[in-house]
Amino acid sequence: MSDFIYRPQIEVLSAADGVRRRHWSDEDKLRIVEESLVGYRQVTATARWHGICRSLLTTWRRQYRNGELGASRSASFAPVTVTKDIPASQPGPVDPVEPARGSEVEIALPNGRRLIVSTEVDPNTLARLLSVVDGQ
């Protein structure tokens, strides 16, 4: 009768047998987050490319926006493109210090938002606007 007693098989796993968690350096996190901010809907594709969970990348992006990730960086640089729109009817050189009326500047913020403002905007107004849009 003892042959009919159910005895489940038990397997003991140790921590050394399994794959351990990966540890990402701040430089790697920053590189991956900045890569995910390049285009539209890049979170899932970037996470898949690097073999991480999308929610982990979303957490890193939130930390990046709040300044919690990569706080050791003292300065950051953004690409700038300067274009000159000179009408053909305007004779002579244009003063490079004074921008033409109606010119605009596009500002790309670290949180992924873009702000387009006129070059004639008041600096104090621009500073207040940037603090609102950037969320600081």
Provide an overview of this structure.
The protein is 32% helix and 7% strand. The protein has 136 residues and is mainly α. Among the domains are: 22-72; 104-134. Strands 1-2 form a two-stranded antiparallel ribbon. Helix 2 crosses helix 3 (54-65). The longest helix has 12 residues, at 54-65.
Helix content: 25-40%
How far from one another are the termini?
Answer: 75 Å
Percent strand: 5-15%
SSE order, as H and E? HHHEEH
Uncertain regions spanning at least 5 consecutive residues: none
- The SS-based structural class is mainly alpha
Number of strands: 2
Q: Count of helical segments?
A: 4
Mean pLDDT over all positions: 76
Largest sheet: 2 strands, antiparallel
Shape: rod-shaped
**What does the radius of gyration come to?**
27 Å
Strand order of the largest sheet: 1-2
What is this entry, summarized?
With 136 residues, the protein is mostly helical.
Topology at a glance:
Layout (H helix, E strand, L loop, with lengths): L25 H11 L6 H8 L3 H12 L38 E5 L5 E5 L4 H12 L2
Helix pairs in contact: 1-3, 2-3
Q: Key features?
A:
4 helices, two-stranded antiparallel ribbon, 7% strand, 32% helix, mainly alpha, single chain, 2 strands, 136 residues
